[in-house]
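Recap from last week: sequence in, structure out.
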Amino acid sequence: MIILKNKNIQLCLSPERGASVLSLTYKGLDILRPSSPDALSPQASALFPMIPYCSYIQDGHFNYFGINRIVPPNQPDMKHPIHGDGWLAQWTVEKQTQDSVTLTYTHDRKSGFPFDYNAKITFALKSDKMDITLSLTNPSNMPFPWGMGVHPYFPLDEKVVLTFNSSHIWYHQNDPIFDRPYPTPPEWNFASGKTIQEDFNTAFGGWDGHATIQYPNNLTINIDAPDIFHHLLLYKPKQATFFCLEPISNTPNAFNLASYGVIGTGIQSIGGKQTLSKTISFSFSA
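Predicted structure tokens:
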């Protein structure tokens, strides 16, 4: 485990468990659901990165540059591969200070995602803020499609208020297989602040990159993500003691939707020898 600290924040993470966060506290308050010390799966962690795609790829294949690309399942209980390779990989510490750490991971296309890439993630604590910088480098001469995001688990309180803007829905847990977004229903409009009144596994589109989580004890969490993160996934399963509010650059099944000609899925390409880096910020007050 690696522990980072500053005056107000303490972050514990594990490079060997997919660069996942095990706990995050602000002035002694749990910002994220703390992970059990003996829980080995990143899904039992407090937060994990999603690289080089978010959510799932339907049936484990997609078309790119006229070629059908195969992505094998990466979870024993799921038909579709999900959340990329990074969250299941062992990462290497590149550099570390008291309040920051940079981890790296090199992916071989022979397993998992069918393209080579080099990934890097930096966690940095700055006063009342945590920055997570995700980077992807294409070592080949050919482009490849990508997406990225983070998957945080927040403690659930029946009075917690979420505030964020959304113009449309890409996916909801009870929808049939979808091929286009639809306008956000009024009952799912969180623009003016709303408690979580039902179960969600829902991808919101048209997000402006800012969301606020307000707890009844006056703990406030602000999420700020830059231009590529136009989507936000809210996940709160039945009888859960947590919820997830995930800044993501691509929609669920985005690779296939994009290959069918659907626009706005968030899938982009990284050219040969190019690097893309983006930072997601979590700031706190209490």
